[in-house]
Design a protein that fits this description.
Helix content is about 40%, strand content about 15%. By secondary structure, it is an alpha/beta fold. The chain has five domains: about 200 residues, Rossmann fold (3-Layer(aba) Sandwich); about 200 residues, P-loop containing nucleotide triphosphate hydrolases (Rossmann fold), CATH 3.40.50; about 110 residues, Arc Repressor Mutant, subunit A (Orthogonal Bundle), CATH 1.10.10; about 100 residues, Orthogonal Bundle (DNA polymerase, domain 1), CATH 1.10.150.80; about 100 residues, no CATH class. The strands form six sheets. Strands 3-4-2-5-6-1-7 form a seven-stranded parallel sheet, with helices on both faces. Strands 8-13-12-9-11-10 form a six-stranded parallel sheet, sandwiched between helices. It has a three-stranded antiparallel sheet with strand order 18-22-21. The longest helix is centred in the middle third of the chain and has 23 residues.
C-alpha cells in the first residue's frame, strides 16, 4: 500500500489526487530501495516517479540529464511547485556552480540535475564525496546504449561515477522509447541490481498518425499551418537547407515562425527556442537538433517534412505533440528521395569514440532501421500497430485513429507479378540492390543495366506496364512476407527468401491499394478534445483564463504551460472555483501554485461570472446535442457501412466443393453490387461461422489454432494441411457448399 506521505506530496506539490498508470508501482519500488528501469510513453509522468521519492529521502537525488533545456524546464517547474531544485551545466558561471554545490550540501536542494559530461570533473567528484546521495536517476536512459538511436558516449561515464561512490545509491532509469535489446543494454551497462522493470506500454492514444506521399510538400505545409493558426506545432526537416527554405516560405506568407538548427549561433537558437516555448511564435521549423527534453505540453501537431532515419527517432519526435494528453496530429510527408537523403546522412555519421569493431555493426543496424522506417511509410496496414509492433507491443485490431484506418483499400491479386519479381532476383543471383531489380523489371534504358548485363535477362521489361511505385510496394510486401530478403548493410542487396509457398496454386500475393487521397487532409477533425466538455460560455472563460496565464507568464519570465497546463485551465473553467478549497480541487493545482496565483484566478473567475450570471460552463447532456448540431466538425469522408448483399447478388456466387474462408470472402466481395460497404476479410467469415457454432479457436502448444466444433464436423467442415512461406505446417478449414450458402444468406438478410 502506498504511504500517505507520498500521496500527500503528490497532492501538495503537484496538485494530483491519484497516480497515472505505473507511477505508484515505480514509486513503491524506489521507496523500498530497489533499482528501477521504466519505459513510459511521453506525457505519462516519468518525472513524478523519481521526484516524489526524492522528497522523502534524507539525502539528495542526482538526476543525469542530456540537455541544458531539459534541466532548465524541469527545475523551473519544480521551483514553481514549491520544490527547491537546481542544476549544474555549462550555462552557469563558476560562481553559480559553487553556489549550487553549497545549497545542495546544506540540504536546500533535494534534487540536483547534472549533465553526464560533468560527472568526471574534479569539482563534481569532490562534491559527490561530501554529499549524501540517496538516488541517481538516469533520464533519457536509452542514450547509454550503443544500439539506441541517440547513443551518447558521455553516458558511459555514469556507471564509473556510481562505482566510485563510497555508498551505492538507488539507481533508477527512465526512457520513453527502447526496444527489448536497448532495455537489456541499459540494465547491463548501468549494472542495475535486480531492477523492478515497469513498462506501461508505448501507445499514445491521443496522437493521430498519418503518412502523406505528397509531391508538393511546401504547398501542403503552408496550407496545413494556415488552417491551424492558433495551434502550436513543430515541423521537422532532415537538413538545414530545408529548414531555412521552409522558414522563409512561412515567414513570407505572414505566419509567425521560428527556426532551429545546428548551423545557427547559440544566441539565435536560444531566441528561437524561447519564442516557441513562450508562445511568441506558434510554429517552429527545425532539424532533429531541436526538441529533446522540451517540455512544452500543448504542441498540437508535429509535421515531418522528411522521413526520419529510424522508428525510435520518429516516435520520439512525433511524441512531442500532445504531451498534455489532448488530441494531436503527427503527419509524415513521404517521398522516395527521403530515403536517399537519409542514406547520405548515415554515410556521414560521426563515429567518434566508437570502437572500430562496433562501427560496421552499427551501420548495419542503421540500415535496418531505415528499411523499417520506409516500411512504415509504405504500409497499408494500421500505422499505430506498425509502430507498437516494432517496440514489441502486439495489437490485432486496427486503432481506428490513424490515416490508414480512415482510408479505403482494395485488394488486388499480384501473384503473377510476384513470381516475375522472384524470377528476376533469381537471375541476379542475389548480387544487386533494389534499384537494379526495379530497372530490370521495368525495362529501363540505363547504361548501368547494360554494363551488368541485366538487359539480357528473361525478366528484362517483364513488368514494363507497371509503375515504379507499384513495383516498390510489391517488393516491399514480398520482403515483409519472407519471399525476399533485403540485407541490412550499406550496399544492401535483394536475395531470395522462402519461395516454396508460391509453388502452391492456392497461395496468392494480395496487394492492398488505396483510392486517391482527399485533397484537404489538413481539415480533418481530431479526436475528442477536453475543450469539448465546455459550453460556449465555458470556452469564453477558458480563453479569459488563458490570457491571464499569458500575462503572469510574461511578468515572471516563464513559459505559460509552467504556470498552469491547458488541461488545468479547462478543469478550472468547468469547476469555476471561487475560494481556496475549490481551486485546490482543480487538477494540477498544488498549494505552492495556489499561493502564487490562486487569488488572481479566483478574481478572474468571479469577474466572469458577474458579467455572465446565467453562464453554465460545463457541458450538459442537452448541450451535447445542441453543440453537435451547431458545430459538427468537418468529416474526412462518409464512413462505409458493414458488408451486405443486394437482392440478386447471392445468385452470382460460384459454389465449390470446398472453400477456405478466404475463398468465400473473395466471392462475396466479387458479387456485391452495393457501393457503400466495407469489403470483408477471411477473419470476418470465420467470426460469423464461430458465432453460428461451427468453428472455434483453441490454444495448443501456446498457439491459437482454428478447429471445427462437433456441429461443424457434422456439417462437413474439413481440415486441410498447408505449408506457410516459412516452411511451417498449419491447418486450413475448408467449408462445403451448405456452409457457403449459409454465409451468403446471412449477408443477404443483413441489408441496411
Amino acid at each position: 500500500m502506498m504511504s500517505m506521505d507520498a500521496r500527500e506530496i503528490l497532492k501538495k506539490y503537484f496538485g494530483y489526487d491519484s497516480y497515472k498508470p505505473g507511477q505508484e508501482e515505480i514509486i513503491e519500488a524506489i521507496l523500498a530501495g530497489r533499482d528501477v528501469l521504466s519505459v513510459m510513453p511521453t506525457g505519462s509522468g516519468k518525472s513524478v516517479c523519481y521526484q516524489v521519492p526524492a522528497m522523502l529521502f534524507s539525502g539528495t537525488t542526482i538526476v543525469i540529464s542530456p540537455l541544458i533545456s531539459l534541466m532548465q524546464d524541469q527545475v523551473k517547474a519544480l521551483n514553481q511547485a514549491g520544490i527547491h531544485a537546481g542544476y549544474i551545466n555549462s550555462s552557469l558561471t563558476e560562481a553559480q556552480i559553487s553556489k549550487a554545490y553549497e545549497r545542495a550540501l546544506e540540504g536546500t536542494y533535494k534534487i540536483l540535475y547534472v549533465a553526464p559530461e560533468r560527472l568526471e570533473s574534479y569539482d563534481f567528484t569532490n562534491f559527490a564525496g561530501r554529499v549524501d546521495i540517496s538516488m541517481v536517476t538516469v533520464d533519457e536512459a536509452h542514450c547509454i546504449s550503443q544500439w539506441g538511436q541517440d547513443f551518447r558516449p558521455s553516458y558511459l561515464k555514469i556507471v564509473n561515477f556510481i562505482d566510485g561512490l563510497s555508498k551505492r545509491p538507488i539507481v533508477s532509469a527512465f526512457t520513453a522509447t527502447a526496444t527489448e535489446e536497448v532495455r537489456t543494454d541499459i540494465a547491463c551497462v548501468l549494472k542495475l541490481r535486480e531492477p523492478k522493470i515497469v513498462m506501461t506500454g508505448f501507445d499514445r492514444a491521443n496522437l493521430y498518425f498519418d503518412v502523406e506521399p505528397v509531391k508538393r510538400k511546401d504547398d501542403y505545409v503552408l496550407e496545413y499551418v494556415k488552417k491551424h493558426p492558433d495551434d502550436s506545432g513543430i515541423i521537422y526537416c532532415a537538413t538545414r537547407k530545408n529548414v531555412d527554405s521552409l522558414f522563409e516560405l512561412l515567414s513570407g506568407a505572414g505566419i509567425p515562425a521560428a527556426r532551429y538548427h545546428a548551423g545557427m549561433n547559440n544566441e539565435d537558437r536560444k531566441t528561437s527556442q524561447n519564442d516557441f516555448i513562450y508562445d511568441r511564435t506558434p510554429v517552429i521549423v527545425a532539424t532533429n537538433a531541436f526538441g529533446m527534453g522540451i517540455d512544452k505540453s500543448d504542441v498540437r501537431y508535429v509535421l515531418h517534412y522528411n522521413m526520419p532515419q529510424s522508428m525510435e527517432n520518429y516516435y520520439q519526435e512525433a511524441g512531442r505533440a500532445g504531451r498534455d494528453g489532448e488530441a494531436a496530429e503527427c503527419i509524415l510527408l513521404f517521398s522516395p528521395q527521403d530515403i536517399m537523403i537519409n542514406r547520405i546522412l548515415l554515410d556521414h555519421k560521426d563515429f567518434t569514440d566508437i570502437s572500430y569493431e562496433d562501427v560496421d555493426l552499427i551501420r548495419q543496424r542503421d540500415a535496418k532501421r531505415l528499411q523499417i522506417m520506409e516500411g512504415y511509410c509504405r504500409t497499408p496496414e494500421c500505422l499505430r500497430n506498425y509502430i507498437l509492433a516494432y517496440f514489441g507491443e502486439k495489437r490485432s485490431a486496427p486503432c481506428e485513429n490513424c490515416g490508414n484506418c480512415h482510408r479505403e483499400f482494395t485488394e488486388i491479386d499480384r501473384t503473377q507479378d510476384a513470381k516475375l519479381v522472384i524470377n528476376c532476383v533469381w537471375e541476379t543471383k542475389g548480387r544487386y540492390g533494389l534499384n537494379i531489380v526495379l530497372g530490370t523489371l521495368l525495362g529501363a534504358n540505363r547504361a548501368r543495366l547494360r554494363e551488368l548485363g541485366t538487359d539480357r535477362y528473361k525478366t528484362y521489361g517483364a513488368l514494363k506496364d507497371r509503375s515504379e511505385a507499384e513495383l516498390r510496394l510489391l517488393i516491399s510486401q514480398l520482403i515483409s512476407e519472407g519471399y525476399l530478403v533485403q540485407t541490412a548493410d550499406k550496399y544492401s542487396v535483394i536475395r531470395l527468401g522462402n519461395i516454396e509457398p508460391l509453388k502452391d496454386p492456392d497461395t496468392h500475393v494480395l496487394i492492398r491499394t488505396t483510392k486517391d487521397r482527399e485533397p484537404e487532409r489538413g481539415t480533418k477533425s481530431r479526436g475528442r478534445k477536453s475543450t469539448d466538455a465546455l459550453t460556449k460560455a465555458g470556452y469564453e472563460l477558458f480563453e479569459t483564463l488563458r490570457k491571464l496565464r499569458l500575462t503572469i507568464a510574461r511578468e515572471e519570465g516563464l513559459p505559460p504551460y509552467i504556470i498552469f497546463s491547458d488541461k488545468t485551465m479547462i478543469d478550472m473553467s468547468i469547476k469555476v472555483p471561487r475560494d481556496k478549497q475549490a481551486v485546490l480541487s482543480v487538477s494540477g493545482v498544488g498549494e505552492a501554485k495556489y499561493e502564487k496565483y490562486g487569488v488572481r484566478f479566483i478574481e478572474a473567475v468571479t469577474a466572469f461570472l458577474e458579467e455572465h450570471p446565467e453562464a453554465v460552463t460545463g457541458i450538459t447532456e442537452e448541450d451535447t446535442v445542441a453543440e453537435t448540431k451547431e458545430k459538427t466538425p468537418k468529416k474526412r469522408k462518409e464512413h462505409k457501412v458493414p458488408f451486405y448483399l443486394n437482392p440478386g447478388d447471392g445468385d452470382q456466387f460460384v459454389y465449390s466443393d470446398l472453400l477456405p474462408a478466404t475463398g468465400i470472402k473473395d466471392e462475396l466481395n466479387r458479387i456485391t453490387t452495393a457501393d457503400n460497404v466495407k469489403h470483408i476479410f477471411g477473419t470476418d467469415v470465420f467470426r460469423l461461422l464461430s458465432e453460428m457454432g461451427y468453428v472455434e479457436e483453441r490454444e495448443e502448444d501456446g498457439k491459437s489454432i482454428q478447429v471445427q466444433t462437433e456441429l461443424g464436423l457434422s456439417k462437413g467442415i474439413e481440415a486441410a494441411e498447408k505449408t506457410s512461406k516459412t516452411g511451417t505446417t498449419y491447418t486450413v478449414l475448408m467449408y462445403p457448399p451448405e456452409i457457403q450458402k449459409e454465409v451468403v444468406e446471412h449477408y443477404s438478410a443483413n441489408r441496411v
